[in-house]
Amino acid sequence: MIEAGGRDRHPYLHLPPQVAERWIIHAAAQLDAEFLAFAATTGGTVYHPSCTVRMGGDGGGAPLDPQLRLQGVEGLRVVDASVFSDIPVCNINATVLAVAHQAAGTILNKN
User: What is the distance between the alpha carbons of residues 32 and 106, in angstroms, rounded to a whole number?
Assistant: First the structure.
């Protein structure tokens, strides 16, 4: 919020303080609404979705077995960042490529 001491920086602040304060709050609310609308329609993320279908086999109820097969669905394997149990600290692309490389070997060996 703009304080009374900042009057010389903003031309509309020549108004009485009570009027100026109401105008500033109204303007800020309009700007917030416009910003939120803009962010909702154009925003995105740089984060990679991961850790949604973790691999397991330890009897802990993981949806995937160690060969990346989805429990209860024959012929379906998951080979992407969703198989991680934790988000990798490194670049996720390299980690996904390593998982894909291992999965390809597993699939080709029919394990």
Answer: 52
Report field, pTM of the whole predicted structure over 0.70:
no
Q: Give the three-class secondary structure for 60.
A: coil
Tokens of 24: 């500033």
CB 56: neighbour CB atoms within 10 A? Answer: 16
Per-residue pLDDT of 2-15, as tens digits, reads 444 444 455 555 66
Per domain, the residue ranges of the chain are 4-42, 46-111
- Our answer to whether residue 48 is catalytic in this structure is yes
| Strand residues in the chain grouped as ranges (E) | none
Assess contact for 100 and 81: CB atoms under 8 A: no
Q: Which of 10, 14, 26, 48 is catalytic?
A: 48
